[in-house]
Amino acid sequence: MHHYIAKRLFFLVLTIFAASILAFLLLHAVPGGSAETIAKHTLVGLEDDVSEQMIKDVSAKYNLVDPLWKQYGDWLSGVVLKGDFGTSFIYFDTPVVSLLSLAIVPTMILAGTSMALVICLGIPLGIYSAIHEGKTSDIVIRIATVFSISFPSFWVALILVLIFSLTLGWFPVTGYGSIQNLILPAVALALHPTAVIIRIVRTSMLETLGQEYITYTIAKGLSFRQIIWNHAVKNALIPVITLLGLYFGHLLAGTVIIENIFAWPGIGKLLVDAVFSHDIPVVTSCIVVIMTIFLAVNLGVDLLYHVVDPRIRYE
Fold this sequence. Notes:
It is a single chain. The protein has 315 residues and is mainly alpha-helical. It has helices spanning 2-29, 34-42, 52-61, 68-82, 96-131, 136-150, 153-167, 179-209, 212-219, 224-236, 238-261, 267-276, 280-308. It has 13 helices and no strands. The protein starts with a helix and ends in a 7-residue tail after the last helix.
């Protein structure tokens, strides 16, 4: 077990390192110089032109004239040695750690609420659909999941805003800090993965219910409830756990779009704003934080297999 965890942690660090390099290089490859973009955001209005002197001043202030390897090396050494992610180019030299600390809580609230909806709706409905295979309720659930899978999250978000905010006035369009602000973005983010989880749980349950050991439990005279909850569900959830771990990463990625639609002040919105303004330390740091959360959750999911099925061993 310890060898397995150490191996996974090594590849986790390696993946984060590669992602940070890729994010850093891609932002430098975007058309439009970083110094010019930063000058437009901090020194003059976006509609005005910047002078050569302004560009030189910005480049000198943030060491943008240094080779890329040195810029990245300075940032990486600050992160590893001091836990310092640098300072923002456009947020008036605010430490990136401060920006991340303010943004990570809203993002985790949104992603966590969406994941709770996925688990609390997807797994019970999938089990219910499998138990009632071929009945009207099963058909309705299957049709609903097909439609839900077909709708992208940003389209769902816009429809929810149109119906429940602009037409009915039940929920605010944007904002943060209350349950009402959370409901629409959480539902928009959770709809697609919930539909997928329902289908996977249903398929896995039907496959499990067809196994010989289920037939044996029936022959022993166990009650239907015991067969379902003590034998079928636990084995059927093993592939679902894997999918839930992957979909948590999907939810984190989805927050980039959903947070901008609902003006939710999370890492996704911070990341998009930083990309448009060429704020390199903020972009790279956001990518590192998102990747770290995603990989840590997947490591936790892999370790959870042994809890669900003690027969699983790690080499």
